[in-house]
Amino acid sequence: MIKEPKQVLIVGGSGFIGTKLAEVLLQAGSHVVIADIVPPRVKDSRVGYFHVDFAKDSIDLHIIRECDAVINLAGAPISKRWTRGYKKVMYESRVATTRKLVALIGQLETKPKVLVNASASGFYGDCKEELLQEGHECGTDFLAELCRDWEAEALKAESFGVRVVCIRTANVLGPGGLLTALTPLFKKGLGGYFGSGAQRMPWIHWKDIVRVYLFALDTEISGPVNVGAGNTPTQKELFCALQKSIHAPFLWRIPYFVARIVIGEFAQALVGSQNTDSHKLHDAGFAHEFSNADQALDDIVRASNT
Fold first, then answer.
1. Is residue 22 part of a domain?
2. Which residue from 245, 247, 243, 265 is spatially nearest to 256, judged by alpha carbons?
3. Is the pLDDT of residue 178 over 80?
């Protein structure tokens, strides 16, 4: 919960998580500025909106002026076929956007106190069963290097005296996230796990990822932060829990070579294993509301049926 009202800029704030963040901030008496290529879903006189594509447009300083905090969620969707052209879009929408954002912060006379920047557990690459804390080295695949460069641009704001938090997001369970793509397939009996299914797959309920961003605004936590809930299940275990929660008929094993043909290099991310450790977040005082995947999925499915 927000300790005191703020003015918060949310870059890429028109998506599902940005919308939920804006709603909670408004309830706490804060003002919200959203910079995005599509208008915000939240309709409130305390919400300012700037139509802007940070990766392509020149940015006016007034977008960020007088903001106490900045949350950067900008980035093209990961869950698509990774062509060479789309990989460039994914990279520029994150790295170039963050570079411009930090440059704006550097020009301000009065700077925001904190930049909370999205990242991903894909930073680590495929590490099998190794327990991954934030100091672990970066992986070598495309997604890992994207996350590395993304975080590096955000952390440059520290040179201006701004506290920077990089949220290494786990797979978000909820509307607009992983479940939106998987649920229709599972209900048709087409759901499955990739490769052996033994790869570790960190996850977090959408309500908890919203709480993590709000927590990062008000505490002194800094640097990269893992956010996965509970013990990290295998992909097969997580998808079996989804199958059970929505009463799907089958769960298939999808060989890696088939996934590679259908979705290209993105398949590599689906068979990579990240057994992340969230002790840094917990030691700072955060407690997940949902630490059990079955409980989380039941909550989400129940809400979708009401």
1. yes
2. 265
3. no
For residue 306, being part of any structural domain is answered with no
Closest CA to 182 of 305, 64, 281, 270: 270
Q: Shortest CA distance to 298 belongs to which of 246, 238, 229, 240? A: 246
- Strand-pair category, 131-132 with 275-276: parallel
1 inside domain: no
Contacts of 93 (CB under 8 A, 6+ apart): 55, 74, 75, 76
> Is 2 inside any structural domain?
no
Query: Cα separation of 78 and 255, whole Å?
Result: 21
CA pair distance 101, 69, nearest whole angstrom: 12
Q: Is the pTM of this model over 0.90?
A: yes
Residue 270 in contact with residue 259, Cβ under 8 Å? Answer: yes
* Local structure of 232: helix, strand or coil: coil
Nearest to 26 by CA among 37, 13, 36: 13
Condensed to tens digits (0 to 9), the pLDDT of residues 150-170 reads 999 999 999 999 999 999 999
User: Which residues on neighbouring strands pair with residue 176, listed in sequence order?
Assistant: none
Helix, strand or coil, per DSSP, at residue 166: strand
Token pair, residue 259, equals 């996934």
Residue 286 belongs to domain with CATH number: 3.40.50.720
Q: Are 201 and 232 in contact (CB under 8 A)?
A: yes
How many domains does the chain divide into?
1
Identify the sign of the CA torsion 244, 245, 251, 255. Answer: negative
Which domain covers residue 170, as residue numbers?
7-301
Burial annotation 249-281 (CB, 10 A radius, 16+ → b, else e)? eebeebeeeebbeebbbbbbbbbbbbbbbbebb
